[in-house]
Fold:
Amino acid sequence: MNRTRTLRTVAVAAALGALSLSACSAAETGKSQDAAGGEKTVKLTVPSWVGAQANTAVASHILEEELGYKVKTQQMGEVLAWDALSKGDIDAIMEDWGHPKEEKQYVEDRKTVVKGGDLGVEGHIGWFVPKYFADKHPDVTDWKNLDKYAKELATAESGGKGELLEGSPDYVTNDDAIIKNLGLNLKTNYAGSEAAQITAIQKYVKEKKPFLTYWWTPQWLNAQVDLVEVKLPEYKEGCDADPKKIACAYPNTPLQKFLNADFAKNGGEAAEFLKNFKWTTEQQNEVAQMIAGAKMSPEAAAEKWVKANEATWKQWLPKK
Structure:
């Protein structure tokens, strides 16, 4: 996300793999035919963060069980997903946190991608510290005071500077520019993945150690770990226009869906369903918590949610 983003356990990664393998197998062996005589297959990308996995899991379950499609999923980075969407290698991105460059290239200029509507979830990225540290040092929640606590936030990987813990290097963040332009004694350190970042946060919390992390909402872990946002300079329209000069907070981002243009036009009930798919932050977190917290497979979590929320998803189905 140009505002991105983007805690899982190893079990979550394994569960995601199971979902992908199961979905791919079903797609390859499915023989149902659409009106044009082709296989009724829908190809969806699976981002690396669990909230977006929840979208794909629920959409896949309904597409297969209610609409008779076979769903093929593939995990890939956000920018790569846009390229694949343009080429038709995937049919839809269910959760995008804002990629202005790709939108201009593929939606406005090439017209190979179209907007698929609001997901219904508002995302927000920021810098966060644990509440126990903010309670002890209330002024740490103002960016102007972060250097005061640089030594306490330092780790073996931060070279004597305060560490700003990041997740996957694939996530597009503004943090290095913000640090430089605000003149902060901080250094970004990438855990490598959302799962690794979550593991690091959980370790810090268990040991009651201070830490500063790039983080976001919605995220299922927020129900278990009490984090407090550090106030960065207020976001104003255009303050992030030049990536090298960014010195402001991240905006609130209504998360969006995007569809391959040909699929949007000729994808029949599947395309209509994905356009209609819209749920709340609370609903997404419910499924994400089942996957990451309760260690259910994405398929099992989706099935459980679908059984309990028929009134919601029935509205997403194409009108007969």
Q: What stands out?
A: Confidence is low (pLDDT under 50) at residues 1-37.
